Amino acid sequence: MEGLSREALEGSFTRTVAIFGAGKSGRFIAEMLGDMGCEVDFFLDNDIRKQGKQIGMARIISPEQFAKTKDDFWIFLSFKNPEVERQLLNLGISSKNILDLSACARGQVISFFHEFCKERSGKKEYRFLLEEDRKTICKAVSKIEFYDGILFISGWGIPSDRIHKVTIKVNGTKEVPALREERRDVADMYPYHNTDTCGYFYIGGTEFKEDITVEVLFWEGDAIIGNLVRRCKYETACKLIEHSVQEGKQGELTRTILMRKDYLLHAKESVAEVLRGYGKKFIDLKNKLYIYGLLYRLDMFDKRDMKDYLEIIGALDDIEAQAWLCEQEIPWMIFLHPEFKVKEIYGWQRSMYHDIARKIYAGKEAQKKVDERRIVILVDNLASDVYASAIFEIAIANELEKRGYQVLMVVLDTSFSPELDIHPCIMHQRSSMQYEKQHKKMKNTDWAIYYCQRVKFRERKIEAYDVIEEYRPCFVIDISQAGLIVCAALFQHQFKIVHIPLSGYSCGAVFNRYITKSKKLSQIDNEIYHSMDEEQIFEAPIKIPYKLDISHTYERHNYGICEDDFVLVTVGNRLQYELDTVFLLHMRKLLLNNKKMKWIIVGRNLGAAFYEYMDVAIETEQVIEWGFEEHMSSLYRICDVYVNPNRLGGGGSVELAMEHGIPIAMTQMISDVTPVIKSENCKLNYDEMFLYIKKLFESEEVRAVEGQKMKQLIHRKELTIEHYVDVVIEAYQDCRKENCEWRGNLSMEKLKLKYIADEEE
User: Fold this and answer.
1) Which of 128, 194, 238, 528 ranks highest by number of CB atoms within 10 Å?
2) pTM
3) Three-state DSSP class for residue 603
4) HSE of 435 in the Cβ direction (CA atoms, 13 Å)?
């Protein structure tokens, strides 16, 4: 087994290419190979949680699945591990087909790379000084692209330690300065590649709207240490989008456009309007979907686009694509961006679920008889014992079993994009089977869990329905999002449905009764969105019954925190969406003015805005990027205040902090935790909230009083799981009195007319 050679690289242009390891190292190798012109076809990984996902256009599969290929192939190793090598050899893969690129992932430059770059750009046009300079000057081939009068010079390894400035000569005369920008796509994903050796691109603006000849000059002091000459074709980003869609190169386009995202925003409105024009012009519905997905990724999406997006989904004739988009794409989009909600969105969802259910479950007969002691709990996925959703779902089952009911929990695990010919905005995949041992430990008794395992999307939907129908429960407790089509079919066949949303105060689910954390907040939402009949609403606020495990010990001094430091903490899985600009500006000002404050952020994928606004605080080590934390109770013991940004979710982490007597700083924005903490204990806006944090910082006595108040609030009787199950049973008893006839069916035609009316208003 050898490293990457010139022969192997050139051969990879015609061979199937797979990278072993779908982690950070593997992604970096893919980026590097892509910049050399080699496209990756597959990622190989033993982690079943990753299998089935995509990285760019490359699918993640198991080594066993890949070993069945008959194609000529290379397997590139992104990390050194003798066990992996043995595994591949045992699968019958020759060592000649396995190449070790782990050194590249650690930042080493491939020996022949310099010459390869020189050849690709033209020997006369790519000049350097001494051979030893190759480690610091233009380690990778630079791409020069010219969109909308902006020049982009990029490459995976453009260095910075020797280069003091970059200038651009246009058509041999006009000189344009180029600004260096950090490549966030590299820096976020591969932080161990320091910014002295890779992860930069340069940008320069011109006034030309025609093809030009560009010479890029790399300077060290007053000396030119390298240059690159290219003929650049002028293109508009919008034309690039149009051509790529027409040629079926959407995946390649997404990567290119998103790299330029920040620089397209200078012409945000014009670009958005052109894209919307393409969305209306293209005949193929999936191309239309792609355009609106691109608007979403470019942060150019709004309510107008949501209306169009819904109509396109409603017109699809691909039932699986339609089902996945309705159940996963749209709910996640409006969860992350509530501002996208249109008035009739929940009516549209409910109508679509019923329509799709009729198609998928055609021929299924209505149930005849039920067992009054049997209850089904339907969930999307069942995560590990550190996740609020899993703790909550299993706690309900435990309590029902304690009361003499027979409980079957059906786990759908359909929250992933199947192999569809679409490019969804939101991608998810979770496998619950990996936590089966944890689930058994979390159960108090021997009630059953059924994990749906059929491979295809539609088959898994049918599997879930068949299991429930055969079980014949008296009612179904729906705590799902991916189960809404299943529930629509059950509803049509006279099963009683009690729906429990994991977030929000209105929804498009199909149900007889709805359990909300706050009836008042649901009624307020319902006045706008008309998502349900108000007699269907039952109120039951709840706290997640965490076990306060403090067996793990964290010491402040191990993390650069002094004993007298004031430690803020924020926790979340979706912080890239939730840490908005206003919040970050307030936090930046707070930290820079108070050097004894530290901010621990628990979570991944913090987003580009976080690094832009917190750069100084990161340098002064006032910000601690903690990553994922399994022992939150232990971590909270070194924290003083929980800071909650404006968001719908995050309730579980806030409640656990309250259990530990930690003051909570949050606004009165309606969220999942509002009924628990009560709005009178929240601040009016960010200005008041950050003044409150300063007050807590200045007075230990105030902190103690506020922390004790949080403890008292979280220990209220109406927040217990026992009270919650009382309300669930009451809701079921109430719905037994009525027929399961769904009211409020809204056709797509009526929806369209309603949209027109809204626009006129």
Assistant:
1) 238
2) 0.69
3) strand
4) 23
How does residue 158 score in pLDDT terms, banded at 50, 70 and 90?
Answer: low
Count of CB atoms situated within 10 Å of the CB of 520: 12
Q: Among the listed ranges 407-416, 498-507, 697-706, which one has the minimum average pLDDT value? A: 407-416
Residue in 755, 756, 760 with CA at minimum distance from that of residue 342 = 755
Domain 6-105, what fold?
Rossmann fold (3.40.50)
- In terms of Cα–Cα distance, which of 685, 600, 614, 603 is closest to 649? 603
**Of the candidates 313, 332, 279, the residue with the CA atom closest to the CA atom of residue 751:** 313
Per-residue pLDDT tens for 444-453?
888 999 998 8
- As a whole number of angstroms, the distance between CA 274 and CA 261 comes to 15
324 contacts 418 by C-beta, under 8 angstroms: yes
Indicate the range of 42-56, 239-253, 698-712 predicted with least confidence. Answer: 239-253
Per CATH, 360-545+729-735 and 556-717 having the same topology is answered: yes
What are the residue boundaries of the structural domains of the chain, listed by start? Answer: 6-105, 113-232, 241-353, 360-545+729-735, 556-717
> CB within 8 A of 79, min separation 6: which ones?
20, 21, 23, 25, 26, 102, 105
Half-sphere exposure of 322 (CA within 13 A, CB side): 22
Q: Report the C-alpha gap between 598 and 596 in whole angstroms.
A: 7
DSSP line for 663-693 = -EE-BS---TTHHHH-GGGSBSSHHHHHHHH
For 299, counting Cβ atoms within 10 Å of its Cβ (0-12 exposed, 13-18 middle, 19+ buried), the class is middle
What angle, rounded to 10 degrees, do the helices at 250-259 and 237-246 form? 160
Tell me phi and psi for residue 17, to 5 degrees.
Answer: -115, 130
Give the tokens for residue 645.
Answer: 């940004």
For domain 360-545+729-735, the CATH class is alpha beta
Residue type present at position 487: C
Residues 734, 588: Cα–Cα separation, whole Å? 51
Any idea which of 18-27, 192-201, 562-571 has the lowest mean pLDDT? 192-201
Structural element, H or E, at residue 174: strand 174-182
- Cβ(610)–Cβ(574) below 8 Å: no
Angle between helices 484-492 and 457-471 (to 10 degrees): 40
Residues 168-217: tens digit of each pLDDT: 888 888 788 787 766 555 555 444 444 555 556 777 777 778 898 888 88
Q: Are 162 and 171 in contact (CB under 8 A)?
A: no
Q: For 327-343, what is the mean pLDDT? A: 88
User: Domain 556-717 adopts which CATH fold?
Assistant: Rossmann fold (3.40.50)
Element (H, E) at 710: helix 700-714
Rounded CA separation 625/599 (Å)? 9
Rounded CA separation 504/507 (Å): 8
The secondary structure of residue 433, as a DSSP letter, is G
Distance (Å, whole) CA 426 – CA 335: 11
CATH of domain 113-232: 2.60.40
